[in-house]
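Subject: design request, 557 residues
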């Protein structure tokens, strides 16, 4: 049947199983919004307070569900407001389809009202881009965009649709949803045999999990390999929830703010099995000293990541679940009593140097109050800063896709939008840990949570400073705290109530526990303003470009 481009877009989105669009209307997408109006019963639309909040919501939706998130914006400032969110998704490999309107094709390049070359602007932060020149190409471009976003190493895909393409008509033929193409592995059976030989020979093996383990749904295989090899499991920031925190072999996060035992185990291992990890600078530190005693096996779906940061001994390119399955079919392993005794000493030393906070209400107590009452499948979202590291270090995660954070870009202001999206995608009460600095960047999205009736609990750690930057200034700028003391007098409880949410203040562990009980029972969004001491620091801490086992421990030692 013949349809307009706007109708084709709507039908193709529905064809691909899209159930929600996060979008903000404007002049060049009026035709698309007409179709949203006509299809209210078929698809949900969520109106954010700002386009950046909208794309973070689509991102949170994708992280929590594993499905592709969809965001829609008009041309010009609507499109440019998406850029930070696109980069956030790109660096964390999150599947998004980003739809922008544009001026008519005949006017492109003439600097018309709200015209921006978003195609070129986002070229380096998308997996692929389309500028749809003909309405006849639109349906297939959308289908391809979904396939590209979700296949292999996922990522954001941009579709820029000029206004006249939305209005022109052509014949539309419905098709089944695209099957996500499986990327063929580049490994050989000989390389699998080499990996097995290295694993069986190792006396101090260590497994390092990145976010790719979660994307490949390979957590069970990781745990079985750990059992088979008697190997500890360490995690990158993006892989924190790859296996349950209470799995006996899990040592937690390694790297710049990682747990002592996790970081030390990598330094002492004679074999490092890295799975779905890209060896970022914050995870690695001094590249020349990283895992210096170890042979390195790198299981990775994206060949561009192999030998990019760390030179490895054996790359295995392909799907992590598939490759681990082949390894498990052959590897025998065995107990490593001496290695386990060393690991036990590392754990004990780490506990001995655990952070002793100075404030009345400590970050530990706040995290404990939340984890005690929230179900294990609760999506836990963080913004970026000290609170992000405290949560990554200490929250007891029980299943994958429950820890949502901006890892690669480190986007302050990510949290509120992402929490909204996670809540919508899962239908579950969602917790956001944030700081007063991050929350101030996008706290307008609390209004979206109120409008949509979303049961999001905002746990706001308020210390009146930009804590992470201030911590760096303390150690590396001689305590010269330049522009990191905010001196804001914001009453976040009054703010929450003014926005239509519930608001509570916690200054003691008792008040925090009481506030969490009220928040858990609430039907809509709640803000808990937790007053913490600005001298609370994140330990351990590895100075930039130093070996990751050269840690500053509790108290700056």
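Subject: RE: design request

Done. Sequence follows.
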């Amino acid at each position: 049947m013949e349809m307009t481009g706007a109708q084709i877009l709507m039908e193709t989105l529905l064809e691909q199983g899209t159930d929600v669009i996060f979008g903000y209307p404007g002049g060049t997408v009026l035709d698309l919004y007409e179709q949203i109006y006509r299809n209210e019963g078929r698809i949900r639309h969520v109106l954010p307070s700002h386009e950046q909040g909208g794309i973070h919501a689509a991102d949170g939706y994708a992280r929590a569900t594993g499905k592709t998130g969809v965001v829609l914006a008009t041309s010009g400032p609507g499109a440019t407001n998406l850029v930070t969110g696109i980069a956030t998704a790109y660096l964390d490999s999150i599947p998004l389809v980003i739809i922008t309107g544009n001026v008519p094709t005949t006017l492109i390049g003439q600097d018309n009202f709200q015209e921006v070359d978003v195609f070129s602007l986002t070229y380096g932060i998308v997996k692929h881009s389309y500028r749809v020149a003909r309405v006849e190409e639109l349906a297939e471009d959308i289908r391809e965009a979904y396939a590209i976003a979700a296949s292999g190493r996922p990522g954001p895909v941009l579709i820029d649709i000029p206004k006249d393409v939305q209005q022109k008509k052509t014949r539309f033929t419905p098709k089944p949803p695209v099957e996500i193409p499986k990327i063929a592995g580049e490994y050989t059976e000989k390389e699998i045999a080499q990996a097995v030989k290295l694993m069986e020979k190792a006396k101090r093996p260590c497994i390092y999990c990145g976010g790719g383990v979660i994307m490949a749904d390979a957590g069970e295989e990781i745990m079985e390999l750990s059992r088979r090899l008697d190997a500890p499991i360490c995690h990158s920031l993006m892989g924190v929830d790859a296996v349950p925190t209470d799995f006996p072999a899990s040592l937690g996060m390694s790297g710049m703010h990682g747990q002592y035992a996790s970081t030390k185990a990598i330094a002492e291992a004679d074999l490092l099995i890295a799975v779905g990890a890209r060896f970022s600078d914050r995870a690695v530190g001094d590249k020349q000293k990283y895992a210096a005693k170890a042979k390195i096996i790198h299981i990775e779906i994206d060949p561009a990541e192999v030998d990019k940061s760390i030179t490895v001994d054996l790359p295995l390119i392909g799907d992590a679940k598939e490759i681990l399955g082949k390894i498990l079919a052959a590897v025998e392993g065995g107990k490593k009593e001496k290695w386990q005794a060393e690991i036990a000493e590392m754990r004990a030393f780490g506990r001995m140097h655990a952070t002793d906070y100075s404030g009345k209400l400590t970050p530990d107590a706040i995290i404990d109050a939340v984890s005690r009452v929230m179900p294990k499948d609760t999506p836990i979202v963080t913004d970026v800063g000290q609170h992000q590291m405290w949560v990554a270090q200490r929250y007891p995660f029980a299943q994958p896709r429950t820890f949502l954070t901006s890892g690669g870009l480190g986007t302050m202001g990510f949290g509120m939008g992402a929490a909204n999206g996670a809540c919508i995608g899962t239908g579950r009460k969602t917790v956001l840990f944030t700081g007063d600095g991050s929350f101030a960047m996008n706290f307008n999205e609390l209004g979206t949570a109120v409008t949509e009736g979303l049961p999001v609990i905002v746990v706001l750690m308020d210390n009146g400073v930009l804590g992470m930057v201030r911590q760096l200034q303390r150690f590396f700028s001689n305590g010269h705290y330049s522009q990191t003391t905010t001196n804001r007098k914001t009453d976040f409880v009054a703010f929450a109530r003014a926005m239509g949410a519930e608001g509570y203040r916690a200054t003691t562990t008792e008040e925090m526990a009481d506030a969490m009980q009220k928040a858990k029972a609430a039907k809509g969004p709640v803000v808990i303003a937790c007053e913490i001491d600005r001298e609370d620091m994140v330990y351990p801490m590895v100075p930039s470009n130093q070996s990751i086992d050269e840690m500053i421990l509790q108290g700056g030692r």
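DSSP finds 23 helices and 20 strands in the chain.
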